[in-house]
Amino acid sequence: MAYVKEWDKYIRGEDDRRIAALVDLLLPKFRERAARHDAEGSFPFENIEDLRRSGFTKLAVPREYGGEEISLYQMVLLQERLAYGDGSTALAVGWHMGLMLHYRTAKFWPQRLFESFCREVVDGGALVNQLFSEPSTGSPSRGGVPATEAERTDGGWLVTGRKTYSTLSPALRHFVVKAKIKDENRVGDFLIRAQQGVRVEETWNTLGMRATGSHDLVMERAFVPDDEVLEFTEIGQKPQRLDDGGGWLLHIPACYLGIAFAARDFALDFARNYKPSSLNCPIADLPTIRHQIGLMEADLRVARNQLYSAAQRWDNDEEGRADMKSELGLAKYVATNNAIQIVDRAMRIVGGASLSRALPLERLYRDVRAGLHNPPADDAVLADLANQALL
């Protein structure tokens, strides 16, 4: 377990401590399973089931529907700790956690549908992710129009298409999908349920984050009733919903800082205990190693401070959330890039042994790189900052 002084630095009180303890109980099992799922590229069904049974997956649901309505700050706290045990599990379930918080604050689902779905999350362990990326359009954040198409039919819609990067898909029976309306200049967000004509095609075989289950979702005339359409938007227009600034996406940098924290702790333990025959002291006493540790700590503390400060401000300033996009993007930029540097420094401290698959560092090194490819992308964050500076 991480060294308590730094690890628990952002726990503010008993409520934070209680929900953090819920995750901490699961970490030993998740850490033990992580290497196997990485090697096999298999999905950690048992981890997801443990999270369901613990009550973790319903924490972001509104209290009125049976959840705990955790804050963004608390979600960041939980995701960082969960990723300390297994980054793939944290990133996968983080989409569900973040979206439940987003749906709660942006309030664009039809009220009766949102209430009934929350009950499914609380009572039946339902999970959700929104699947917008496609082979021909790439990331939806770049503004591409989906090739997936929805066609009108009696009582609803028939949706046909393919979605890529469908993280958590092996555990999902509910998918939020964006599709272009056939012969119209608008798109819709549809709640797709597992049914005939919906299948997960196992395509995920990657360098890192190998156990997230980010396969392809294929829909062939999947039926969506009218009352399970979330919203329609004219192409080129912003959706008519409350703008929450995208705070929910902080589940992503929290995950990569958790991975970095695990690498940092491994390196510190190694430095304290490794004493080569050429030395009469452990390598932690060497100035060069202490310099690397100092740089590692600086990166970690700067990133955590940026992340938790942004989350707390988002929680406290409901009216100002729409204006926080650049600050939230910066928190992600700093956290993911610093996390990569932390893992790199940890490997330099450990040396050649860090490349061994018998140790966790090479997996953490591969996993942490994936942060560069999660939204928002570095170039988009920097472009936004430049535009603000030049106003």
From TrEMBL:
Keywords on record: FAD, Flavoprotein, Oxidoreductase
Record domain Acyl-CoA dehydrogenase/oxidase N-terminal: where: 30-101
Residue ranges of every copy of the Acyl-CoA oxidase/dehydrogenase middle domain listed in the record: 132-221
SUPFAM superfamilies reported in the protein's UniProt record: Acyl-CoA dehydrogenase C-terminal domain-like (SSF47203), Acyl-CoA dehydrogenase NM domain-like (SSF56645)
A GO term for molecular function: acyl-CoA dehydrogenase activity
Region of interest: Disordered: 133-153
InterPro entries: Acyl-CoA_Oxase/DH_mid-dom, Acyl-CoA_Oxase/DH_mid-dom_sf, AcylCo_DH-like_C, AcylCo_DH/oxidase_C, AcylCoA_DH/ox_N, AcylCoA_DH/ox_N_sf, AcylCoA_DH/oxidase_NM_dom_sf
Domain Acyl-CoA dehydrogenase/oxidase C-terminal per the UniProt entry, residue ranges: 254-370
Cofactor(s) annotated in UniProt: FAD
Family: Belongs to the acyl-CoA dehydrogenase family.
Name of the protein: Acyl-CoA dehydrogenase
